[in-house]
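$ ./design --mode recover --in tokens.txt
reading tokens...
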């Protein structure tokens, strides 16, 4: 790893950036195989920035949970409370953005991405606020509350990715946010039981009340038929967000659009599989096979072609409205 440190407001030199991009690519290959498959379709410069942005997000996620690449316990997991780790993440992220030297590759990576693409720090702080919701044990009374969480942990990442892909206008950023929210709704549906075992329930309280289900019953195997109905609702809720994201593909450069369209297909299929399996959806973690990922690469190319031929369509009414402060 290069020892080069970041100068305030300046991107890294080519050698240091190459080192960090390689580190980030290794991280994503081990931590998110679905995104890794799609990321190979980006042009080299966009791919490097996308990987480096992911590396920072992955580092933050692992630091809060005391894990490595989403699994187990990482070194120092018990060294501070989750709130303390979050405070450290925020302080070190802001310091890196201001040009302070840092030995942590993830902070050097995000500082480079922010400087190179003019990424507003407001977006980074909004993402960190998503972790704050977990740290503070936020409860979600309505689906609007759940969607607010989805925005902070994933929708804002979609916005940042769109900026990296040179999409600047508000409509394109809205569509990118929609895709991030769709991804997170899919993730919540797939991971309902695993999250509940860890004490995190993202299902809205009014849905639980309608189903006569308490939060502490979500992980109970006897609740699986009811949980399957609620997961079905989440997957259905994601559909208009996926549709909205489809109409945003035309605003992206061709290779970026192909990568995004591939990721859209991969993640949407995960949600459909949750629905198809019903109460058995949590007997084993749902994942997409290598053959299926390759199929979505081909389907993604066709999806981009259709999006470019399609007549413009306004976003559907009722979709989550992202904050506009960072535009």
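writing sequence...
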């Amino acid at each position: 790893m290069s020892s080069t440190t970041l100068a305030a407001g300046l991107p890294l030199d080519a050698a240091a950036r190459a080192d960090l991009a390689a580190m980030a690519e290794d991280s994503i290959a081990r931590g998110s195989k679905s995104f890794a498959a799609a990321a190979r379709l980006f042009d080299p410069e966009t791919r490097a920035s996308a990987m480096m942005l992911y590396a920072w997000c992955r580092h933050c996620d692992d630091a809060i949970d005391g894990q490595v690449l989403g699994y187990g316990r990482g070194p120092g997991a018990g060294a501070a409370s989750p709130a303390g780790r979050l405070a450290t993440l925020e302080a070190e992220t802001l310091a890196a953005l201001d040009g302070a030297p840092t030995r942590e590759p993830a902070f050097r990576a995000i500082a480079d991405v922010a400087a190179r693409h003019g990424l507003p720090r407001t977006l980074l702080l909004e993402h960190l606020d998503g972790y704050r919701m977990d740290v503070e044990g936020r409860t979600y009374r309505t689906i609007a509350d759940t969607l607010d969480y989805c925005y902070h942990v994933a929708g804002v990442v979609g916005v940042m990715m769109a900026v990296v892909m040179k999409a600047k206008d508000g409509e394109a950023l809205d569509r990118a946010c929609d895709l991030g929210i769709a991804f997170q709704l899919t993730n919540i549906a797939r991971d309902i039981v695993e999250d509940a075992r860890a004490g995190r329930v993202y299902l809205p309280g009014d849905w639980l009340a309608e189903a006569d289900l308490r939060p502490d019953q979500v992980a109970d195997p006897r609740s699986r038929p009811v949980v399957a109905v609620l997961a079905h609702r989440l997957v259905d809720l994601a559909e208009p967000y996926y549709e909205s994201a489809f109409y945003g593909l035309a605003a992206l450069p061709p290779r970026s659009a192909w990568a995004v369209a591939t990721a859209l297909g991969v993640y949407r299929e995960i949600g459909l599989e949750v629905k198809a399996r019903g109460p058995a959806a949590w007997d084993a973690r749902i994942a997409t096979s290598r053959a299926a990922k390759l199929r979505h690469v081909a389907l993604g190319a066709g999806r981009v072609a259709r999006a470019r031929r399609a007549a413009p369509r306004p976003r559907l009414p009722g979709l989550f409205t992202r904050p506009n402060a960072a535009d």
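exit 0
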